[in-house]
Amino acid sequence: MTAVFGYYLELAGRSLRRHVVLTALMIATIGFGVGASMTTLTVLHVLSRDPIPGKSHELYYVQLDPRKAGGAAPDEEPESQLTRADAEALLRAGRADRQAMMVGGNAAVEPVTEGAASSALPASMVDARWTSADLFAMFEVPFAAGGGWTAEDDARAARVVVITRALAEKLFGAVAVTGRTVRVNGIAMRIVGVIDRWSVSPHFYDLTVGAYGIDEQLFAPFSTSRALQFGRSGDMNCWAYASDLEAVGAPCTWIQLWVELGSQPRAAAYHDFLVQYSEDERKAGRFERPPNVRLRDVTAWLDHKQIVPDEVHLQIAIAFGFLAVCLINTVGLLLTKFLRRSAEIGVRRALGASRRSIFLQLLVEAGMIGVAGGVLGLGLAWLGLWAVRHQPTSYAELARLDLPMLAATVALAVASSLCAGLLPAWRGCHLPPAIQLKSQ
Amino acid sequence: MLHMKDVSKVFRTEMVETHALRRLTLEIRDTEFVAVTGPSGSGKSTFLNIAGLLEELTGGEYRLDGVDVSRLDDRQRSRLRNEKIGFVFQSFNLIPDLDLFDNVDVPLRYRGFTSGERRRRIEAALEQVGLRSRTRHYPAELSGGQQQRVAIARAIAGAPKLLLADEPTGNLDSQMAREIMQLLEGLNAQGTLVVMVTHDPEIAGRAQRNIHLVDGVAADLDRGPSLIAPGTAAARPTA
Asked: Alpha-carbon distance A91 to A231, whole Å?
């Protein structure tokens, strides 16, 4: 079988070399179609990939519905964030394996140099996250130095921060900076940990600040951020007037709560707990609607939020339409090529080749075109992604070929060319040999 | 070796039905040298295509070397064709972008021989037709007679029992035609059954037996009327 396949490869090579222009045209046709398709598919692939593999089915996003009863609709989606009162109550309840409440923010940060009256560097504005202690363990955040803060730090609103390696290097020119002090919005805070290289994309844990291209460089306790009245970012939804929208009792949702639940039974139990919590709050008069809760894992949450931009779906549809046109052209070119070789096919049939042999021989030739088209398509996809990276989109920097997409590109090219080769090969192997021999 | 009984072949289109062979019955033994003659449209090529398993018959029975070919699928027919039959065509039908070695190699590839065995057979076949020294030449570099000799080498490399030749000298001058006939006669002398379609009475005259076809029916000119299919038109000499 190997010898036969080798023979078909040899024949395909000869045939392709015989008609260089036609061969180049077919390779270019497949290559352009595959290149365009793989560029858009790669963008989709990076935009929809699992941001936290291995834990995406253990981390759950909590939703409750604390809104007024008026305007409620059956099967309505609950609020997408929590009120501060609910987030803090659920955090205190501690019914999950781990739990972290959080909100985005930003801060002016500058290093404090020992003995110096003021910082040598001007303050930098950085994206920040006000959260609670469990976040680092829940999201498996790697540390280059130190670690996260403790629950006690949360409880006493300690003036501690965790910064990224990039920020540490920018502020201090070093990574081992735990114990040193930075000013955050003018307040001195002690660095307890430096996060090593860590990027989460999509930014699943808070989509209100954006799904892609988010670069948070500073983390501090939520309680501290409230005590110091640090600014927050992201969406907020209120359904009644309040003088302080961020106060504990304010009728506003603006906080995310993630919980870690190690098993399905644990998740089911936590769901029941949320239902009971909602029921208790309704009885207490704080909630007006019947319990309406959601507990989605990372994958389900991202699916629900449909984070991939519509334009990407449109681009994929257009690219695959283009690939289809390319394939139809390739079918035509292959048909021409194979039917022009009807005499040779007739001779081979007379000398003992079965229809199946001819079919496989022609299909191997189509496959070889596909491999070459795949290599060209890879180059074009690489170029296409380079162009995407230069677009002003939030996900631009993510658009890079990885190993699975590299393999998928070649596979798509070969599969496409084999599909394109099916009809021509079928027609070729069914040419009546007697007529072809006579027509020579 | 080749046994046909009441073989018929009808070509049908929406408008026309053409009877290329009508209840053809004949038997050809292992070591014969048979010439098939007849005017254009008499069914010679159809006969050769059916004998060579390139076309299926419409009716009747055809047994090749004891095998009822009507029961075979395409793969089995191809294998039988590859193992038992060699073809020589009027226009040689060499594959132009393969050199002589690779042209002779074509049927052997489908036979599944090892590389060494193929090489041995190719060299022996080219030696037999006097072209051993030109294995890496291409068909376009050879004369018509040399190309036909390559075609014969290709036909005999697999040691077939039956050699089907369709006007093998039709495109050659008389000197080359004689050389080709000597080759075919030599092969027949070595035990290969040769069935040759020809228009040329002189060439036909060199065969041991002459079957004349008219309108799809046959007259066996050298064996008397016993093998002439019933209800046929009168046979006539080919001279």
From this structure: 22
Number of A:B CB contacts under 8 A?
67
CATH number at residue B198: 3.40.50.300
DSSP-based three-state secondary structure for B164: strand
CB A295 within 8 A of CB A272: no
Interface test with B, best of A19, A351, A358, A429 (most B CBs within 10 A): A351
pLDDT on residue B229: 41
Q: Which residues of B touch A440 (CB under 8 A)?
A: 89, 91, 93
ipTM higher than the 0.90 cut: no
User: Is A230's pLDDT higher than 70?
Assistant: yes
To the nearest whole Å, the CA of A433 is away from the closest chain B CA by: 6
- Which are the contacts of B136, defined by CB distance < 8 A and separation ≥ 6? B99, B100, B101
Q: What is the DSSP letter of A393?
A: S
Domain ranges of chain A: 2-48+309-438, 59-305
CB contact under 8 A, A356 and B74: yes
Among A191, A161, A159, residue whose Cα is nearest residue A175: A191
Q: What is the pTM of this model?
A: 0.73
- In chain A, what residues touch B107 (CB-CB under 8 Å)? 351-352
Contact B93 A440 (CB under 8 A): yes
Tell me whether residue B232 is in a domain: no
The answer to whether position B238 is within a domain reads: no
Site of tokens 């007006």: A288
pLDDT tens digit sequence for B26-77: 999 988 999 999 988 888 889 999 999 999 889 999 999 999 998 899 999 9
- Map tokens 């449109």 to a residue: A314
Q: Supply the pLDDT for residue A386.
A: 92
**B10 lies in which domain range?**
2-94+159-227
pLDDT of residue B224: 44
In this structure, what token pair is assigned to residue A285?
A: 């008069």
Contact call for residues A35 and A377 (beta carbons, < 8 A) = yes
Task: Find the angle CA(B164)-CA(B169)-CA(B171) to the nearest 5 degrees.
Answer: 120
Strand partners, A126: A107
How far is Cα A292 from Cα A290, in angstroms, rounded to an integer? 6
Question: Residue B198's closest CA among B172, B233, B230, B231?
Answer: B172
Domain tally, chain B: 1
Nearest in space to A306 (alpha carbons), one of A104, A44, A52: A44
Element (H, E) at A300: helix A298-305
**Is B121 domain-assigned?**
no
Query: Is residue B67 one of the residues assigned to a domain?
Result: yes
